């Protein structure tokens, strides 16, 4: 989902939940930009639990893990320009 922000900048915030119980979890997420040829960047952008970061819009490969146990997830996502992208992830 997305929400307006007063700066009109592209931002992202991750909300992480445990897949089975639905309980919120602290996690660290790492984003790798995907270029127009489908290649992922070798350099990651890190985001930590419920903290909003400024980022470029576009496609990204996501890797996330919880510090509260062995819970992980991966996937791709598209960030919309000029809004705060709120991304909900299930850790398993």
What are its keywords?
92 residues; mainly beta; 4-stranded antiparallel sheet; 8 strands; 0% helix
How would you explain this protein's 3D organization?
This protein is mainly beta and 92 residues long. Helices cover 0% and strands 52% of the residues. It contains no helices and eight strands. It has strands at residues 2-3, 11-18, 27-33, 45-48, 53-54, 58-66, 72-79, 84-91. The strands form two sheets. It has a four-stranded mixed β-sheet with strand order 1-8-2-5, with no helix packed on it. A hairpin with a 5-residue loop joins β6 (58-66) and β7. The radius of gyration is 13 Å and the shape is globular. The model has no long low-confidence stretch (mean pLDDT 93).
Briefly, what is this?
The protein is mainly beta and 92 residues long. It contains no helices and eight strands.
């Amino acid at each position: 989902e997305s929400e307006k922000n007063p700066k009109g900048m592209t931002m992202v915030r991750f909300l992480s939940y445990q897949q089975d119980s639905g309980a919120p979890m602290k996690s660290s997420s790492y984003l790798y930009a995907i270029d127009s040829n489908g290649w992922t960047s070798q350099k990651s952008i890190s985001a930590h639990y419920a903290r909003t970061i400024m980022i470029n819009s576009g496609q990204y490969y996501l890797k996330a893990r919880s510090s509260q146990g062995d819970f992980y997830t991966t996937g791709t996502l598209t960030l919309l320009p000029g809004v705060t992208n709120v991304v909900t992830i299930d850790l398993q």
